User: What shape does this take?
Amino acid sequence: MHEPIPADAARRVRLVVLDVDGVLTDGGVYLGGSGNGEPVELKRLDITDGLGVKLLVWAGLRVVLVSGRPSVASRLRAAELGVECVEEEGARKLPVVERLLARFGLDWDAVACVSDDLADLPVLRRAGLPVAVANAVPEVRARARWITTRPGGHGAVREFAEELLRARGEWTALVDAYLKERERPEEAPAAAPPRAVRTAAAGRRNDADRDG
Ligand SMILES: [Mg+2]
Assistant: This one.
């Protein structure tokens, strides 16, 4: 049986750092050109990951995409999900995450990092909850406290989001709140995040409103 995420590490998480290539995607990129010769880069993303990210945000967690490969596709996906995307050419991710921690007033214990390749190791080594996707290289898998059964670009982030929220005891309330929001009559005002979720996440949003 696949082991759950350790509850103690899960409950300390305030910031989820997601790699893009190989985690939100299968690592493939389509390179080509538009009709007028402009370079075009396309990535294939898994739509089910999106709701996973949204539920993490509803739970009061910060989610940041950190990529070593600047790409319009990554920025578009982050914008769709309403999360930040930091791109660091050369894949030096450690200073990026250190800046995030300073900005949010967090320490490494509060970081969950989902990774597939060596570029993530400096962050993974320090994160309180290091996670590898199923397709991660051996060095990353060896460092991870938890490994998804799904590969990157095929629901790995959704699987991680659900498991993290289950380990925190928040999954059921979040799904209930999500369904309630979906069943809301058209004329009723939107509530995002719904009251039930704010209540469930109360006390864990200590830094969430400060830097909104
Ligand atoms: Mg990667």
